[in-house]
Amino acid sequence: MKSNQITIVDIANELKMSKSTVSRALTGHPNVKTETRAKVMELAEKLDYQRNMLSISLITNKTKTIGIVLPEFITSFFPQVVVGAQEEAARQGYSVLVSQCNESYDTEVANSKVMLANRVDGVMVSLTKETLNYDHWKAFIRKKIPVVFFNRVCEEMMVPKVVVNDYDAAFKAVEHLIQIGKRRIAHLAGPSQLVISRKRMNGYRDALKKYDIPIDEELILEYDLNLSKVKMYVKHLMDLDSPPDALFAVNDPTAIEAIQIIKKLGKRIPEDIAIVGFSDNYGSSFIEPSLTTIAQPVREIGRTAMELLLGLMDKDISEWKPLIKTLDAELIIRNSTVAADKGV
Q: Counting CB atoms within 10 angstroms of each CB, which of 176, 291, 326, 342 has the fewest?
C-alpha cells in the first residue's frame, strides 16, 4: 500500500482501535494512554503515514508551524539563528516557515501577511533597517498570535525580546583599541533607527569618555548598511588631515569591506589603523589580516527566542509577559588589532 493511501482508518483497523482513539493519539491528546499513543505512533511511522495537517489544524486550531522573519540572509548571522531556532522547534514538535526581507520594509509587511495566511502559531522577528512602523506586527497580537523579537527589536511593543548586550560589547571593543594605544578611533555606525546601532554607538562613546579621549564627531559616520558605500566612507576618513588610527565598525561585513579598501590604499593593519568588527561572521577569521570582532552566541539567540515563543503557546494572552533575555558576547582578538608577530 502506497504511503499516500494510508489513512487513520487503516491504522485503526490494524490495531483494532477506534478511529477517534487513533486520531487523538496522533494529535497528542492528553486523554490517550502512553502505551496506546506509542503503538499508534510506531505503526504510523512503519506505514509512513502522513498526517493531514490542514484537517488537524481545523480541529485543534493549531498548525504546529512557527514563522521566522529575517531582515536579510546574506551574512552568516541570521542563518545560524535559524539553525538554533529550528533545533528547538523540532524538539517541541513544531516546523518553521522562514522568510527574508532583503532589508525592505515593504517586503517585511508582505512577509508578515504570508505568515498570517499560513496561520502560523507564532512568529520570531528581526526587523529590517527601514522599519519604523510596526502595525503589521501589532496585528498578530490582536489576533492572539504571539510575537518574539530578536537582535533588531521593536522597543514600543511589550512582547518578549532576545538581545545581546550590544552596549557592553561595543564598550569592550573600543576599550581594547584604547588599550593597544589607539586614540583616534572612528566609528562606522549603522542606521540610528535600529536599537542595536544606538547601543553600539553609546558603548563607543562611553569607552572614549572613560579614558578621557575627546569625542570627535568628524570620526563618526552613520550609514545605511549598504556595503557599496563603505569605500566612500573609508576614503573620507583616511583623507582627513588627522586620519583615524582605529576603526570600530557596526558589523563584520562593514569591517571586512573596510579592511580590503584600506589595504588597497597602502595602509598597514593594524600598525597604521586597527579594525574591530561585530558579530564574528563566517569569513572574519579567514580574511587577511584576521578580524578582531565581537562573537555573539548566535544559535543560543535562536534557541532562546524559540523557547520564549513556544512558552506562550498554551497561555492566555493575559498571561503573556514581555520578558527580555540579554545574552553576553565575547571579544575575539585577532590580527586586525594585534600584529601576528606580537601574538593574539
A: 342
